[in-house]
Amino acid sequence: MTVNGETHSLTVPARESLLEILRDRLFLTGVKEGCGHGDCGACLVIMDGKLVNSCLVLAGDLDGVTVTTVEGLAGENGELHPLQKAFLKEGAVQCGYCSSGMILSAKALIDSGVPLTEESVREGLSGVICRCGTYPRTIAAVMDAAQTMRNGG
């Protein structure tokens, strides 16, 4: 599989989850384990262009896939992605536990081409539970980042 642009060949038990592989074998700790049942969104990643709960994807389904984690959004020189910058600017990262899921959900939403309104952003981020309640800041961050991205930033 390819993770954040790097190809990895791993031998793992077929029942090991993508979440476990990312955190325990590839040391990509931006992805978090929240509920372990696909309900909270803390473990979201983009796999083959689609947003998935990494806790629900088993190793047996990973041959040849491409995965992007929050770490993979940063530029080659380590510069933060506009979404990451906007989340920091708007203070949408209080405890940080849901942040990677929120940021990847926002990226998937923006990439989908759906017209962004407060309502569409709320719907696009509805799969991630934020226990700190930063939803208004998160929506502002997504709108800000989307504008920056549209302007070539």
TrEMBL record:
Keyword match Transmembrane: no
The GO terms this record gives for MF are: 2 iron, 2 sulfur cluster binding; metal ion binding; oxidoreductase activity, acting on the aldehyde or oxo group of donors; xanthine dehydrogenase activity
CDD domains linked to this entry? fer2
Q: Is-annotated flag, keyword Oxidoreductase?
A: yes
Q: Which Gene3D superfamilies match?
A: 3.10.20.30, [2Fe-2S]-binding domain
Stated EC number for the protein is 1.17.1.4
Output the InterPro entries linked to this UniProt entry.
Answer: 2Fe-2S-bd (IPR002888), 2Fe-2S-bd_dom_sf (IPR036884), 2Fe-2S_ferredoxin-like_sf (IPR036010), 2Fe-2S_ferredoxin-type (IPR001041), 2Fe2S_fd_BS (IPR006058), Aldehyde_Oxdr_Iron-Sulfur (IPR052914), Beta-grasp_dom_sf (IPR012675)
The record places domain 2Fe-2S ferredoxin-type at 1-73
**Record's keyword terms, sorted:** 2Fe-2S, Iron, Iron-sulfur, Metal-binding, Oxidoreductase
Q: Which Pfam families match?
A: Fer2, Fer2_2
Name of the featured protein = Xanthine dehydrogenase iron-sulfur subunit
Organism per entry: Desulfovibrio piger
Upper lineage is: Bacteria, Pseudomonadati, Thermodesulfobacteriota, Desulfovibrionia, Desulfovibrionales
